[in-house]
Amino acid sequence: MSQAVREAESQFIVQTYKRTPILWERGHGVWLVDSEGQEYLDMAAGIAVNSLGYEHPAIQEVLAKPGLIHTSNLYYTAPQVELARLLCENSFASKVFFCNSGTEANEGALKFARKWGKERREVVAFSDSFHGRTMGALACTANPRYRQPFEPLIGGVRFATYNDLDSVNLDGGVAAVIVEPIQGEGGVRSADADFLQGLRRMCDARDVLLIFDEVQCGLGRAGKLWAYQNYGVEPDLMTLAKPLGGGLPIGAILINDKVHNALEAGDHGSTFGGGPLVTRVARSVFETVNQPEFLAQVEQVGEQLGQVLQRMVEKFDYVREARGRGLMWGLALDEKVPVADLVAAALRQKMIVLSSGGNTLRLLPPLVLKSKHVEIFETRLEAALQEVALALA
Predict the structure, then answer these.
(1) Which SS3 state, helix, strand or coil, does residue 209 take?
(2) 201 and 312: one domain?
(3) Are 184 and 300 contained in the same domain?
(4) How many Cα neighbours within 13 Å face the side chain of 279?
(5) CA distance 393 to 391
(6) Domain check: are 261 and 337 in the same one?
(7) How many domains does the chain have?
(8) What phi-psi label fits residue 167: left (phi over 0), alpha (psi between -120 and 50 degrees) or beta?
(9) Do the Cβ atoms of 130 and 141 come closer than 8 Å?
(10) Which residues pair with 319 in a beta bridge?
């Protein structure tokens, strides 16, 4: 990559990221191309963001048309209203609040829960959770490494154990429970159906709100339009972000009647949230994903991907478990093998993957991944795993 770019980044940008020395210049489909013209199979999608990959016609067509970029939420814009209508008509929700990111969506959901709960202010979150890096969302994030440098965080958050109903205590002033149907940063761990269904019953019995964080696992990623549809459970609020804008920043909080009736003008706001350009693009992304044939392909290719990962479990002693669904998968490694070594080996095989908690390789490819790409992935993953195995010998 360009040494000049690397030096300028070091000089002018706050060093909060450990960047891989690659300079991306363009992409197409599920492929990224660096400054030297080398193509990489993208199995990360910008951390679950580029849902339709790169240069998808549905997005390019919208971007090519003239139109407003921003007006503020002091006025009406038709694209925002139309996207909200689509989200409500295709989910449990009756209202939507737009923002700019997953963290913002979770912050807003926590505020709405507290407003609804009145004197009840506490929130139950779970072990291995990740809900964002701002102060409220961070308070609901279990990882001490993220939390400790910024404590004291907001109070009123108690943690229970993921997939363990017996650990959940809703006594006292609990307003809401926030949970990921599939944990992303926490090692790609799926909630048990009994767990989410039990949470719903407990929340109903105590008149507590149930918030699903589908920032990473929603909008087709888990093989259904929404991850909660795999469990037969509906939340009271649901947060979205990453894939909705197809690469542009947008977040959303979907809310049912129970909650939105407690909100008034001025309770929350966003200068940029739901602007006309990003909602035009998001509508196109949503309409593309929300097709039976599209979602069926995600499930089919996801099953193929899962089978590949299971074969790796059987071939390599240090690979412990494959877990996931749809196009959200994790490959858990033995603790003696740092997952960073496998991420680096995959990069040498011209493939982009991610790490996750619990020493897990995380895969979040664009939802347009095809069977032929999974075949390429298998060859390259096996080569990367073999490289790590040889280093262990």
Answers:
(1) strand
(2) no
(3) no
(4) 28
(5) 6
(6) no
(7) 2
(8) alpha
(9) yes
(10) 333
Provide the pairing of β-strand 174-179 with 182-183. Answer: unpaired
* Predicted pLDDT of residue 1: 66
Which tokens go with 247?
């690469």
**Dihedral of the alpha carbons of 63, 248, 71, 103, in degrees to the nearest 10:** 170
Residues 15-56 have pLDDT tens digits of 999 999 999 999 999 999 999 999 999 999 999 999 999 999
DSSP-assigned letter for residue 140: T
Torsion of CA 342, 346, 351, 356, to 10 degrees: 0
What digits encode the pLDDT tens for the residues 359-388?
A: 999 999 999 999 999 999 999 999 999 999
Tokens of 171: 């006594």
Residues 81 and 229 in one domain: yes
Domain that holds residue 135: 68-289
For position 119, which CATH number holds? 3.40.640.10
7: in domain: yes
115 in Cβ contact with 123 (< 8 Å): no
Segment (H or E) for 154: none
pTM of the model: 0.96
Secondary structure element (H or E) that encloses residue 220, with its range = none
Residue 63 is assigned to a structural domain of this protein: no
Residue 61 lies in a domain: no
Give yes or no: residues 222 and 239 share one domain.
yes
Task: Identify the burial level of 296 via C-beta atoms within 10 angstroms of its C-beta, where 0-12 means exposed, 13-18 middle and 19 or more buried.
Answer: exposed
- What's the rounded Cα separation, in Å, for the pair 294 and 312? 27
Q: H-type helices in the chain, by residue range?
A: 3-12, 45-48, 57-64, 78-89, 102-117, 135-139, 144-147, 193-206, 257-260, 276-289, 292-315, 339-348, 371-392
The CATH number assigned to the domain holding 21 equals: 3.90.1150.10
Given 263, 289, 315, the domain boundary residue is: 289
Nearest to 51 by CA among 294, 247, 302: 247
Rounded to 5°, angle at Cα 51 from 217 and 25: 130
Residue where a domain terminates, one of 259, 289, 319: 289
Verify that 186 and 96 share a domain, yes or no: yes
Structure tokens at 341: 């070594």
One-letter identity of residue 72: S
Identify whether 62 is part of a domain. Answer: no
